[in-house]
Backbone:
DNA sequence: AAACCCTGCAACCGCTCTTAC
DNA sequence: GGTAAGAGCGGTTGCAGGGTT
């Protein structure tokens, strides 16, 4: 462990780059190339020495600064300028799933750097979501914090959704850790000129859907996760204190299990959103060919009446595991392209587009409609449906579009 | 016209992880 | 196995430019 030599210590230049410096750096890279510096053993040292040589000659910048300038600004495959609506939606949805993992998000946005995405999130999207009444951290409506009888019901529904998604996210992260090790060698040559060795979290997730279940790695959070898995497989209970380092939720209060994204090979895995008709709570049910149902909430002490699926159940098949690696192409949802039974995604996008374009009025009207809903006692249904669709659509979009990721 | 405020973004900082020795 | 240094990442800062008073 150690830090790179600080620019200050060796008197290197800091601050904005001048066009002359950019030219020098470009000239150097033209001559010596670039790429994943880690992926070029032996060369990385040469690169750094050359940077130092460059520094000695004229470019008084440390190697780290040069690398940043190249990766964030000078790279020819960088698309600059405003983010379009689809990119915005993608960022929001991936952020909901991955959190502040900008590099992972960037792998799904062609020609955008993690730094650019991060800046755009902090300066635009975060504020916009806040303005829309959505917590940018949890991606759930802030209005849920209103205290009321229905409010508690809504909170529980949202907590349930969040818990499920947090678990799914943790599972994806764990797979990234495990599978990136396994695949990094074979994937490196496929990674683009960005030179980044980053492996797509979502692609990993998707890959996992085509792979047999394996024991999770020895991450603490997954030890906890692993501990509940066998119980869940038998229709058992809950997750205990399964918490993410970045989670805003306390799983101990939710008590559910959520094997939502692990699927057996060649199985026709189905995720069903299940709701207890008597309350606002719900859960995901994963079904495979053998019809084993993962009713995570079934025996939860928090959801004692949770027994049956209702007409409110929402199911969607992954339908993806028999596909090879994604083909090159733009980041377009498979479901959007083909309309293969995922119409709700389109509806979601349209609705989201409306919100993005004009959120204040919508928000007001939505608030008022919530009030009226609450007044007749169905407010929980309204919020419940909104949130159910929101989170389910994120998963659906991710599932359907990860094959189009340009990373592979 | 000047001062102030706000916004956007490039760049830096500091940390962890990975790799080489 | 231990250590040093490179690579990568996320958070933060500081400045430039535009808008407002």
Residues:
């Amino acid at each position: 462990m150690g830090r790179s030599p600080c620019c200050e210590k060796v008197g290197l230049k800091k601050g904005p780059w001048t066009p002359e410096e950019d030219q020098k750096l470009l000239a150097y890279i033209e001559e010596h190339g670039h790429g994943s510096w880690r992926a070029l053993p032996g060369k990385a040292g040469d690169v750094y020495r050359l940077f130092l040589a460059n520094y000695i000659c004229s470019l008084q910048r440390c190697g780290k600064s040069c690398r940043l300038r190249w990766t964030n600004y000078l790279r020819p495959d960088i698309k600059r300028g405003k983010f379009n609506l689809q990119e915005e939606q993608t960022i929001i949805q991936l952020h909901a799933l991955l959190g502040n993992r900008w590099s992972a998000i960037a792998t799904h946005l062609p020609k955008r750097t993690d730094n650019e995405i991060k800046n755009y999130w902090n300066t635009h999207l975060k504020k916009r979501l806040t303005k829309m009444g959505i917590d940018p951290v949890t991606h759930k409506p802030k209005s849920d914090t209103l205290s009321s009888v229905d409010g508690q019901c809504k909170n529980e529904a949202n907590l349930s959704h969040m818990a499920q998604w947090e678990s799914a996210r943790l599972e994806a992260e764990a797979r990234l850790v495990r599978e990136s090790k396994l695949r990094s060698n074979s994937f490196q040559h496929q990674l683009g000129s960005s030179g980044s060795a980053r492996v797509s979290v979502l692609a990993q997730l998707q890959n996992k859907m085509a792979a047999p279940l394996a024991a999770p790695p020895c991450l603490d959070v997954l030890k906890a996760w692993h501990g509940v898995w066998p119980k869940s497989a038998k229709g058992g209970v809950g997750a205990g204190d399964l918490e993410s380092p970045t989670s805003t939720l306390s799983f101990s209060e939710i008590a559910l299990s959520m094997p939502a994204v692990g699927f057996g090979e060649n199985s026709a895995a189905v995720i069903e959103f299940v709701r207890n008709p008597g309350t606002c709570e719900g859960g995901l049910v994963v079904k495979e060919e053998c019809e084993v149902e993962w009713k995570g909430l079934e025996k939860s002490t928090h959801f004692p009446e949770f027994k049956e699926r209702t007409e409110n159940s929402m199911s969607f098949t992954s339908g993806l595991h028999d596909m090879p690696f994604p083909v090159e192409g733009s980041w377009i949802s498979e479901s959007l392209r083909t309309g293969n039974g995922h119409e709700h995604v389109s509806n979601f996008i349209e609705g989201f587009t409306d919100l993005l374009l004009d959120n204040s009025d919508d928000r007001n009207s939505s608030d008022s409609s919530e009030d009226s809903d609450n007044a007749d006692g169905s407010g929980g249904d309204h919020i419940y449906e909104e949130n159910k669709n929101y989170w389910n659509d994120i998963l659906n979009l991710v599932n359907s579009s990860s094959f189009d990721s340009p990373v592979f």
About this structure: Chain A has a mean pLDDT of 50. The CA atoms of residues 29 and 200 of chain A lie 27 Å apart. Strands of chain A lie at 270-275, 282-287, 314-317.
